[in-house]
Every structure is written in structure tokens, then in C-alpha cells.
What does this fold into?
Amino acid sequence: MDKKTIVVLFGGRSSEHEISCKSAVTILQAIDPAEYDSKIVGITRDGHWILVNAMEDIVNGSWEKGTVTAVLSPDCTRKELICREAEAYWHIPVDVVFPVLHGRNGEDGTVQGLLELAGLPYVGCGLMASALGMDKLYAKQIVGLLGIAQAAYVPVQKEALAQMDLVVAKIESRLSYPVFVKPANAGSSRGISKAHNREELEAALLEAANHDERLLAEETIVGRELECAVLGGKEAKASGIGEIITATEFYDYDSKYTDTNSRTVIDPELPAGIADKIREAAVAVFHALNGYGLARVDFFLEEKRNRIVFNEINTLPGFTNISMYPMLWKAQGMDIHKLVARQIELAYERRKQGRI
Ligand SMILES: Nc1ncnc2c1ncn2[C@@H]1O[C@H](COP(=O)(O)OP(=O)(O)OP(=O)(O)O)[C@@H](O)[C@H]1O
Ligand SMILES: [Mg+2]
It folds into this structure.
């Protein structure tokens, strides 16, 4: 059988650029070279699409200086990468794409829209599930319909901050301190703060407004942070449970990627019935958003009421060597090679079903 060509698309303009580089390395190492010829395309922080020679160039960071441009054609009759170096053009036929992009432009349906136009099978959720999952406000509205508990919240439009007193009064009338303030779309804790009083709330709202036009203020849930991986299409399955134990006040960007005091535990001790409730809720959320392929769904186990509370869904969770998503499947006997192979297979299955 002829080898298929897979494009691994990584980097990107989002705040999660670096994590995407690490995820791409994990995925490239896991792709079976007997079945797939990997073409690596990196998107720089400025938005240049670059054809990367080898995985090692991602590890040492030299890829960003590459001189060959490579873009995916949106012309579905072509199914190709169009490459250019100086005045020379050529093309590389493409079979399937693994968009290893986290956050804006990668996890929010944008690149998925391009891949739909290109008529190429691609790994992960489609345009709509990606867009809804990335947006904390829309995701909450949909999850609310499922009857799954979530933190009480107040949506805020950036323009409303011109009358800060009114916004603060509304939040204070509905929530008590401390409150979390988040941009609806950001990712990796960027623009998120925990406000303990009015002064901090105002600063938190202004900070979140630097990241998005739509924000939310949210009740603080005191409890444990538990995550569940989902894999598959209509018959999607949930993994076991992973727990995040942080040393800082919340699981912010530094504690996620640099702080060694934060750790993850797979299949932690939990009160009876909680793991199954999380697994069920994770799959329900995945389907409600029209998920496909993969997602990680994050919950709290609220201390005082011993109940699970939905926090968020990530349609392209981290794939670094210390990321929860691959670790949760490894604990189920599916190593990274099998996991990546299954994800690529699912991309083909989805294309056959004509799902968007
Ligand atoms: N309502 C809340 N109550 C208590 N802690 C919260 C609450 N919301 C967020 N946190 C803390 O802040 C962290 C980051 O918030 P959240 O998961 O909503 O955004 P995010 O991490 O930016 O999104 P992503 O995981 O896609 O990168 C959580 O992991 C948790 O530690
Ligand atoms: Mg999170």
C-alpha cells in the first residue's frame, strides 16, 4: 500500500504557540512512518506558514527561520500544499491533516473551516464544535441545557465596561467574592484572574477585555479539579479521571507549563460514583457540542456539596509528553502511537460519514 501524506500543522498565532510546538513533537514521534509520510507545517507567531524540514527543527526552534512557505490550498479539487521558495513554486499532494493548534485560530473552528474548504480529512472536532467549545459563554449555555451543574456566572460585554460601576454592581448582586473573571475566548488561563474585592474585580475585567470582546465573571468553586478525556465519534468513550493538584491559587499558565509543584494524578481516589458521573457528563457535553475525535472535559468536584461542576471543554487538548489527554489514554492501555493512529483513522471515518 502506498504511504499517505499527513500534514502536521502546528505553532500558530495564539498564546498557546509554545505548547503547540511541544504537542507537535509528541505527535510527530508517534506517527507510524511505515504508514504516513509526515509533512510538517509551522505557523509562526506572525502568521507565516513555513515548511519545516525535520522535527528536530521544532525542538531547537530553528524552524521559524525557514525559507520555504507552504500553505494549504482551499481548492477542494487540488488537495495539496502549495510551496514556494523565492521564485520557485511546487506542490505536495496531501491526504490528511492533523491540526495540532491550540487556542485562537486553531482550536476555535477557524482552521477547521479552511480544512473543510480544502476537502481534506482532518483530526479532531469540526468547525462548529471547535467554535462552541472554545467559547466559554456558548459552551456554558449549551451545557446548561443538559442539566449539568456549573459555576454561576454573569456575562459581560467589553463596551459595558465604560460604565464600570454598573457592571460591578451587577456582578456583586449575583456573586460573592472571590470571583473568577475570564475572556470568553482565550485559552491557557490567559487573561483570567481571581478577584477578591471590588478593586481587583475592576482590574480583572479590564485585563480580560484585552483578550476578548466578551467576558464572564464566575462564582469560585472550592473543590478538586478533575479532567476526563473523550475519544471517538458517535460511539465516543470516556477515559478514566485525571486530577490536577496545583500549588498556586489557581491552575494558571505558569503552573500548567513551568511550575514543578503542580502535578497530575491519574485515577485518583474519589468518593463512590463520582468517576462514573464525570465520565457520563464528559460524553454528554462532547455530544451536545457536536464533538468528534477528541476532547478533554474539565470539572470540579465541589467540596461542600460533593457534586460535579462542569468547568470547560478543550477540543484540542495539550499533547505534550506531560499532558493529561495522552496520559489518560495510556492508563487505559492505549499508548501515544495507538492514540495518534486512532485519531487519524477517525479523521477518515468522519470524512466518509460526511460530517461537518
Ligand atoms: N469558577 C472557578 N472556580 C475555581 N477555580 C476556577 C474557576 N474557574 C477557573 N478556575 C481555575 O482557573 C484555571 C483556569 O481556568 P479555565 O480552565 O476556565 O481556563 P483556561 O485554562 O484558560 O482554559 P484552557 O484550559 O482551555 O487553557 C482552572 O484550571 C482553575 O484552577
Ligand atoms: Mg482549563
Remarks:
- Residues 298, 312 surround magnesium ion (ligand 2) (CB under 6 Å).
